[in-house]
Write a structure and sequence with these properties.
five-stranded antiparallel sheet, 251 residues, 8 helices, alpha+beta
C-alpha cells in the first residue's frame, strides 16, 4: 500500500499480536516496522491529508483532530496492553519506511534509555476539583437591610471563598505529596481550562504519576481512600495510560 508513514510509538519487539480488527489513523491497520532491535508501530496515511501543508490545516479542524486523536489513542491503548510503548506526538509522519528507520537510528540511544526507564510502568492521572461555591451557602442569603448589611455579607462571602480555596490548596498539596511518595515519578500539569474541559468546579490539581504496573491496584486504592475526605473536593482518576508525561521529547 502506498502513502506516508504515520508513527504511533516506538517499543521493543513484542510477541503478543494486536487485535486483528484494530484500525488506526485514516482507517489503516497498524503494523510493526522493526529496525535495530526496536519496533516502530506505523500506519499508511494518504498524502493529501498528511503532507505538511494539509496536515497543518487539519490540525486546526477540531472535528478532524478529534477523530484522528481517537484513532491514535486507540492504537496506543492496544499497545499498552501488550508492551511498554514510547508514544510519539500526534501527527508524526514520514515519507516512507526509510524515513522511519532513519528516525530510529538518530534517536536510538534516547529510545533505549527511556524504554528501560518506563518498562513495566504505566501512567495514572489524578485531578482534584473544588466546587465553585461553598456547600454551606446552599440556602439563599437574606436580603440586606442596609448598605452596612450588604458590605458585611460581601465580606463574609469573600472570607468563605478564601477559606475554601485555602482548604482546596492544602488538600491537593497533601494528596500530591502522598501519591508522589508512592509513585516512582510524578509530573504537575497546568490546571485545566473549564471552558475546554467542560468540568465543573475549579481544577486545583492536575498531575500524572508513573507507577509500576504491578503496584497499580494499590495506587488506585490509595486514591479511592481520599475521596469524600474533604467536603467540596472532587477527585478524578484516569488510566492506566502509556507514560506520555514521562516519555520526554521523542520527535
Amino acid at each position: 500500500m502506498t502513502g506516508l508513514r504515520y508513527v504511533y510509538a516506538v517499543c521493543r519487539p513484542f510477541g503478543t499480536p494486536l487485535q486483528a480488527e484494530l484500525t488506526g489513523v485514516a482507517g489503516d491497520p497498524p503494523r510493526a516496522l522493526t529496525h535495530h532491535g526496536l519496533v516502530a508501530v506505523v500506519s499508511h496515511v494518504p498524502e493529501r491529508d498528511f503532507a505538511e501543508e494539509p496536515l497543518r490545516r487539519h490540525l486546526e479542524d477540531l472535528d478532524w483532530l478529534t477523530e484522528t486523536a481517537r484513532a491514535h489513542q486507540g492504537v496506543i491503548d492496544a499497545l499498552t496492553s501488550v508492551t511498554t510503548p514510547l508514544p510519539l506526538r500526534l501527527g508524526t509522519v514520514f515519507r516512507d519506511d526509510s524515513g522511519v528507520r532513519m528516525m530510529i537510528e538518530a534517536r536510538e540511544e534516547d529510545f533505549l534509555r527511556t524504554l528501560d526507564r518506563l518498562e513495566g510502568r504505566v501512567e495514572w492521572g489524578v485531578k482534584v476539583y473544588a466546587e465553585s461555591e461553598p456547600q454551606e451557602s446552599a440556602q439563599p442569603a437574606q436580603k440586606p437591610a442596609s448598605g452596612r448589611d450588604y458590605l458585611r455579607q460581601r465580606r463574609m462571602q469573600t472570607r468563605s471563598h478564601e477559606e475554601m480555596w485555602q482548604k482546596a490548596e492544602a488538600f491537593s498539596t497533601r494528596l500530591h505529596e502522598e501519591l508522589s511518595a508512592f509513585a516512582e515519578d510524578s509530573r504537575m500539569h497546568p490546571p485545566q481550562n473549564p471552558a475546554l474541559s467542560k468540568a465543573t468546579g475549579r481544577n486545583v490539581l492536575n498531575a500524572a504519576y508513573l507507577v509500576p504496573r504491578a503496584n497499580s491496584e494499590e495506587f488506585v486504592e490509595l486514591v479511592d481512600r481520599t475521596k469524600g475526605e474533604v467536603p467540596g473536593m472532587r477527585i478524578e482518576l484516569t488510566g492506566p495510560w502509556a507514560a506520555y508525561s514521562f516519555a520526554g521529547e521523542t520527535t
